[in-house]
Design goal:
3-stranded antiparallel beta sheet; OB fold (Dihydrolipoamide Acetyltransferase, E2P); elongated; 2 domains; 244 residues; de novo design (two linked rop proteins); alpha+beta
């Protein structure tokens, strides 16, 4: 018998009576649990809720078998639909990346702090999601330096970026032989990137357009792809972006 604390990231039906749970576990990283017969039970299992699981060790397809669970903390309520979408994006991000078991506690703490922080927010939760991405990139060993030009290597305000996730300043853009390979950041997108490490102190000063959001999303996703050699597609991020 195995005891584990984890937060449910997603739930899928499995047969007429059972469920498959995708869980981020405190000391095991991402695991999959089969909950046999749970669709027939009166108390549903909820996403974004932390449970204390009692499990049987995996015997087939790497699935743990659920014996019982007890709710610990509830992160399933949000002040607005857009904030719920930001919670979805954070959960999907943590489900898509590879988390070593020995680092699971760091990621677990980061995700639960993120979900708890955004819960009361009515708007602009996407700013906190980008800060989450920034921190996760650092934990993955691919930290992105938003306040340094990748061309001259000086501390300068971000002005443009390319599909490799490289950020350059205005002076360097004017000197490049092929400047059309870079996308110029809008003033608001540049401001957000500059303030992102401490963005929680500036939430009321940020008024985003869909174009701003598209630029920042593309920068982060391109940077991840260039450094991890794999594409990161987050459906929930596309949904979240539609609220702006």
């Amino acid at each position: 018998m195995i005891k584990a604390i984890g937060i449910v990231l997603s739930i899928f039906p499995y047969s007429e009576t059972s469920l498959i749970l995708k869980v981020l576990a405190w000391d095991k990283a991402q695991i999959s649990i089969i909950a046999k017969g749970w669709r027939k039970k009166p108390e549903p299992i909820l996403r974004f809720v932390e449970y204390e699981f009692t499990l049987y060790a995996p015997k087939e397809d790497g699935l743990y078998l659920l014996k019982e669970l007890n709710q610990s903390r509830d992160f399933s309520s949000y002040a607005s639909t857009s904030t719920w979408a930001a919670a979805e994006a954070g959960a999907e991000l943590c489900a898509r990346i590879i988390i070593p078991a020995h680092e699971a506690k760091q990621y677990y703490t980061l995700l639960t702090q993120y979900l708890g922080y955004i819960a009361p927010m009515q708007e602009n939760a996407i700013l906190i999601f980008w800060r989450l991405m920034l921190r996760i990139f650092t934990m993955l060993g691919i930290g992105i330096r938003l306040q340094r030009c990748d061309s001259c290597l000086l501390s300068k305000e971000p002005f443009a970026y390319n599909l490799a996730g490289e950020i350059i300043c205005q002076d360097c853009l004017q000197k490049l032989p092929l400047p059309d390979r870079y996308t110029q950041l809008s003033p608001m997108a540049g401001k957000v990137l500059l303030l992102l490490p401490e963005i929680a102190n500036h939430l009321q000063d940020i008024h985003l357009t869909n174009s701003d959001i598209s630029q920042i999303n593309q920068l982060f996703l391109s940077y991840f792809s260039a450094h991890q050699k794999q594409t990161l597609k987050l459906k929930s991020l596309s949904v979240l972006s539609q609220f702006y």
